[in-house]
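Entry:
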Amino acid sequence: MIEQLLKDSPIVKESVIKDVRELTLAGEYGLAFDTLCSWIYEDELPIEAAYYDRLRNASIEFGARELVDRLGELVLSDND
């Protein structure tokens, strides 16, 4: 799940991609998800509504609903 979210994410920094993958390989899925979402938020990367919905669904599994809720402000509108 995290690998697919990472692949579909707007993150392009190789160092961040590497960090998320390493955390996933180490079994640190919650931390990998947190890192993915935090970088999207910190870099103010725009995301599609469908991707945001996928993050919200994943946040239930990882107990990170508040973290993902912050990303709502980065969702592209139909006019973007």
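The helical segments are 2-8, 14-25, 29-42, 49-62, 65-69.
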